[in-house]
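Field reference: sequence -> structure
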Amino acid sequence: MTPQRTGGGLPGYAEHFEEPAGYLDFARYGPPSRQVLAATSDALNRSARADRHTVNDLMLAEQRAREAAARLAGTDPAHTVLLPNASTGMFHAAFGLPGGAVLVPAGDFPANHYPWRRSAGLGRAVPHWLAAAPDGRVTPDAVRVALSDDVVALSVSAVDFRTGYRADLAALREVIGPDRLLIVDAIQGFGVADLPWQAADVVVTGGQKWLRASWSTGFATLSDRALERLEPTLTGWTGVQDAALFDDRGHPPADGAQRWSVTNLSPVAAAGLEAALNLVEKVGVPAIEAHVSARLDELIEVVRRCGGHLLSPEAPAERGGILSFRMPRTPAADVAAALHAHGVTPTVRPDSVRLSAHGSTTPAAADHVHAALTTL
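Structure field:
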């Protein structure tokens, strides 16, 4: 039986969602709000009755979503571009560096690996694999030791996908100095962790996880330093100056972050992203973060009481919204089966189980996890 939410979520936020109480897989996918459903449905319905105004009107959602994203990231629309996913942004960054070495954590998510592998194969920037601690920490000291004269950038995840460890972006910025780029995959942190995004030169994220905007949504922000140093290698026809002027000539790239645009995005997806960003902005990332931290404290206590081994940091200042653990002498698949039987949705890895809470998660989630783990 699937447990239903009965209250205890973040006021002003939780009431907009409908996922069951045992849903703890936000680090994989965040079920969207009623506002996102309404916005996308309205845009699609309007497109079905299109007249001469419809397409232009629907495409205004992209500008509004870009403005909302810029506000949450602490920048402006000129330094922000909408993307269909985070990986597109990482490839833009990787192919934009003409050469040099880039420090990349060896244990990072593959989306932060393949762009650099492909870049090296094309004779551009080459990854130097950075050994991280077993809990996913990419520390300033480790980066400092790995720095060499040929390193031009550091590419790192804001929050480690395995353990939820939160990178100290300000400290990493200080270590690499002003002459190197800090490129951040923010998909496991943006919208749930109040981080200093302005410390980074490139921030890329997708909207399907913590922003709860569903698939095919995302954006990137670029600093002036990034705009100066990254070549617009993948720029498409919508990323140039005077994009609407069809004069059979190649146009120069747009001045700002729009140069990372390849083609028109879905105005339906943009409408959903706008709605999701507006809800996050209305409630505030600090409030969401505090609520998630409280729920993680409850889950940590349950896992410990049941004899589990934590893989994630316990200190709120060091973690995002993720709790990973193992149960001694119990395969992860068996732990997952017990959780599923009690209506809990986790992320299942070969050697561990990951739980991730959000602003709509209630204290009942910890009760369901406890009931499941006590059966092992």
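Note: The first strand starts at residue 80 and ends at 82.
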